UniProtKB/TrEMBL annotation:
Protein name, as recorded: Leucine rich repeat containing 74A
Region (Disordered) location: 1-25
Species of provenance: Rousettus aegyptiacus (Egyptian fruit bat)
Top-level taxonomic group: Eukaryota
SUPFAM superfamilies the UniProt entry points to: RNI-like
Gene3D superfamilies for this protein: Ribonuclease Inhibitor
Pfam families: LRR_6
Listed Acidic residues bias regions: 1-16
Length: 424
């Protein structure tokens, strides 16, 4: 070989080392496969409190929105929704009736964690259940762009309701409107106190409550929704025949709002407890409330709390007339104007001593006396029925103040009195 001839560099066969062409989907899924160390880390994190944390977020943040959603679908084992792929950069996304289920909802939630486009999200009728609800709530803790969400008709159940309740108490998201349609979620009790949703929020909530057939207990205290919200509640009371316990304390409800609520009470046949404590109610409003109950022969009202209202002796006389029609009722007010301290003390004389004296004279026990008031002879009895029985019995005459104290001693906080709880 000629020394001047340059040496050819060593080469390798490109056909042996060049990777075969792949489709975009294949490339996506190939890249998604994690080494064993990462898989172990993911498995360790699956038991963490935040379910969405199991994803490889560092990789997702470098991936486009569509690719992120496709990766999420692969991860949870669902078929991607083509509509969402086409519209996830729009401000309004309607995924109602898409049959997402809990896993499909989780994939959507993962994709929305870093989404800045979607402002309104419709997810009604997707059977997302409590698992899907948890995924959405976790997403909302990271997404600060989504403002309106509809998750009605989704079989959320009691656990889903608990998740939503805790989320609303934290109130850390940018969400302004949340539609839950209680008709479909099967809620028995809902606490939305201290959420400051004011009049528009109260009106929106009441629109769903008018036809609700499951909710029994609703706490809307400390929200400041005023007379406009009270008017919406009045409509609910006219149309809803299932709600039994309603707390609207401290909501800035004046005489105008009380008038609307009273109209509802004139026809309502299910409400047992109404708490109106710390609302600016005057004597006129207080009279409207008790007369509305008197006008309703089918009223089941047992407890009306207006305990910040100072009433007159004329109000008490009117109330006695209401009690004659509805002996199960107890109205709690602050005090009677001009009532002497001596008379107040007399009204609060210990009822147990009176009952004990009667029992001793008749050689029975106090428990026997109470059981005699119960048609089935049991030691437990609904509060309203017990109050009615005590008012109607004439063996041991006691007043309403004494009866209220007696119930407090035996109340199980379940709408029942338990005679065995009485400590002498």
């Amino acid at each position: 070989m000629d020394d001047d001839e340059p040496l050819e560099p060593e080469t390798t066969d490109e056909t042996e080392t060049q990777p075969l062409p792949q489709s975009s989907d294949e490339m996506l899924y190939c890249e998604a496969e994690a080494p064993s160390a990462v898989e172990k880390e993911k498995a360790a994190r699956e038991s963490s409190e935040t379910d969405l944390e199991i994803e490889d977020t560092e990789k997702f943040f470098t991936t486009g929105q569509n690719e992120l959603y496709l990766e999420a679908c692969k991860l949870v084992g669902v078929v991607p929704v083509s509509y969402f792929l086409r519209n996830m950069e729009e401000s309004y996304v309607n995924l109602n009736h898409h049959g997402l289920g809990p896993n499909g909802t989780k994939a959507i939630a993962i994709a929305l964690v870093s989404n800045t486009a979607v402002i309104t999200l419709e997810l009604a009728d997707n059977c997302i259940m409590d698992e899907g609800t948890l995924s959405l709530v976790e997403m909302l803790q990271e997404n600060y762009y989504l403002q309106e969400m509809n998750i009605s008709d989704n079989a959320l159940g009691l656990e889903g309701a608990r998740i939503i309740s805790e989320f609303l108490q934290r109130n850390t998201s940018s969400l302004v409107t949340l539609q839950l349609s209680a008709l479909n979620v099967g809620l028995l009790s809902l606490n939305l106190s201290w959420n400051h949703f004011c009049s528009p929020g109260a009106v929106a909530l009441c629109s769903g409550l008018r036809t609700n057939v499951t909710l029994k207990t609703l706490d809307l205290s400390m929200n400041g929704f005023g007379n406009e919200g009270a008017a919406a509640l009045g409509d609910v009371l006219r149309l809803n025949s299932f709600l039994a316990h309603l707390d609207v304390s401290s909501n800035n409800i004046g005489t105008e709002g009380i008038s609307k609520i009273s109209k509802g009470l004139e026809v309502n046949e299910s409400l047992k407890v109404l708490k109106l404590f710390l609302n600016p109610i005057n004597m006129e409003g207080a009279v409207l409330l008790i007369l509305s109950i008197k006008k309703n022969p089918k009223s089941k009202m047992e407890n009306l709390d207006i305990s910040n209202v100072l009433v007159s002796e004329q109000f008490v006389k009117t109330l006695d007339g209401v009690y004659a029609v509805h002996p199960q009722l107890d109205v709690i007010y602050k005090a009677v104007q001009g009532l002497s301290v001596k008379k107040t003390i007399f009204q609060c004389t210990n009822a147990i001593k009176l009952i004990q004296n009667y029992a001793d004279q008749n050689k029975i026990t106090i428990l026997d006396f109470f059981k005699s008031l119960n048609p089935n002879g049991m030691i437990t009895m609904p509060v309203g029925e017990f109050r009615k029985a005590m008012v109607k019995q004439n063996k041991v005459p006691i007043n309403r103040y004494q009866l209220r104290d007696l119930i407090k001693r035996m109340h199980e906080k379940t709408g029942m009195v338990n005679f065995s709880l009485l400590k002498l």
